[in-house]
Automatic annotation (TrEMBL):
It comes from the Bacteria. InterPro entries: Glyas_Bleomycin-R_OHBP_Dase (IPR029068), MeMalonyl-CoA_epimerase (IPR017515), MMCE/EMCE_epimerase (IPR051785), VOC_core (IPR037523). Transmembrane segments: none annotated. This is Methylmalonyl-CoA epimerase. It comes from Albibacterium bauzanense. Keywords: Metal-binding.
C-alpha cells in the first residue's frame, strides 16, 4: 500500500455536492467522469496527496443507489493506491478477504480497481487502485 488514494462519498445530487465541497475545501473540482460499468457519475477534488471522490448514481440499479437507499449519503469507501493490483488482490484473497471482483476492472480517474468486501475490513468497503500506465508516462 502506497497511500490513501481517495475517500469515496456517496451523494444524491452531484452538482449540489460539487458546489458544497468546492466551498468546504476551497478548491475546484478538477474532473467529472461517468463510469457506466458502475452506474455512477463521479467528481474529484485534490487534497494534498489524496483525493475526495463524490459519487452519484446514474440509475436505481447500481451500488451507489443501493448504498444511499440503505444508509443515506456519506462515506462509501476508502481507496488505497497500490503498485501492483494483482499482487495485492492475491495477498488479500490469501488472507481470507472476499474480493468483489476477481479481476481488476477499469474505474474512474485512469485507474484499475478492485473492491474488498466490507465485512472483511471492519465494515469499511476497501478499494485497491492502480494507475493505468500510458505509453508516454
Amino acid at each position: 500500500m502506497e497511500k490513501i488514494e481517495h475517500i469515496g462519498i456517496a451523494v444524491r445530487d452531484l452538482d449540489a455536492a460539487i458546489k458544497n465541497y468546492e466551498q468546504i475545501l476551497q478548491s475546484p473540482c478538477y474532473k467529472t467522469e461517468t463510469v457506466e460499468s458502475e452506474s455512477v457519475k463521479t467528481a474529484f477534488f485534490k487534497i494534498g496527496e489524496s483525493k475526495i471522490e463524490l459519487l452519484q448514481a446514474l440509475n436505481n440499479e447500481g451500488p451507489i443507489y443501493q448504498f444511499i437507499e440503505k444508509r443515506g449519503e456519506g462515506i462509501h469507501h476508502i481507496a488505497y493506491e497500490v503498485a501492483d493490483i494483482k499482487k495485492e488482490m492475491a495477498r488479500f484473497k490469501a488472507a481470507g478477504s472476499r474480493l468483489l471482483n476477481e479481476e481488476p476492472k477499469k474505474g474512474a480517474d485512469n485507474k484499475l480497481v478492485c473492491f474488498i468486501h466490507p465485512k472483511d475490513n471492519n465494515g469499511v468497503l476497501t478499494e485497491l487502485v492502480q494507475t493505468i500506465s500510458t505509453p508516454n508516462s
